[in-house]
Here is the input.
Amino acid sequence: MKMVLAIVNKEDSRKTQAALNKEGFTSTKLATTGGFLMTSNVTLLIGTEEDRVDTVLSIVEHNCKKRTQIVPNTIHSAAGLSDNPVSVCVGGATVFVIPVDRFERL
Ligand code: 2BA
Here is the structure.
């Protein structure tokens, strides 16, 4: 079994979860905050069998769009970078696939 941890844009999370449900996956949504932009994002936890991980990744990829965001001066200089505002490409999704030793519903 694997745990897919997908960090996605808040605006994409609802339709991503709906598409996962439709294909029979169970997911949990956590409200999270990115460490660089310090803005809200969503982390989806999706536990699944190894042979279905690629299906999860296609659903996430299909439903999560890349966006360009302007980084304000304050964030940029706090990160030790130049003072000029710059644009960064965020998402579609940042995904980690983690092995699960054991899964129980108790
Ligand atoms: P944030 O940390 O708010 O980062 C938003 C975007 O800012 C990133 O988009 C990237 O384009 C840029 N960025 C992040 N750190 C940077 C830095 N030190 N210098 C310059 N630019 C930087 P994504 O890579 O698509 O990441 C979107 C969100 O996914 C991140 O939000 C964070 O919440 C999460 N994430 C990305 N990589 C991660 C990692 N290795 N571990 C944990 N979380 C991660």
Observations:
- The beta strands are 2-8, 27-33, 40-48, 67-71, 86-90, 93-99.
- The radius of gyration is 16 Å.
- The longest helix spans residues 10-22.
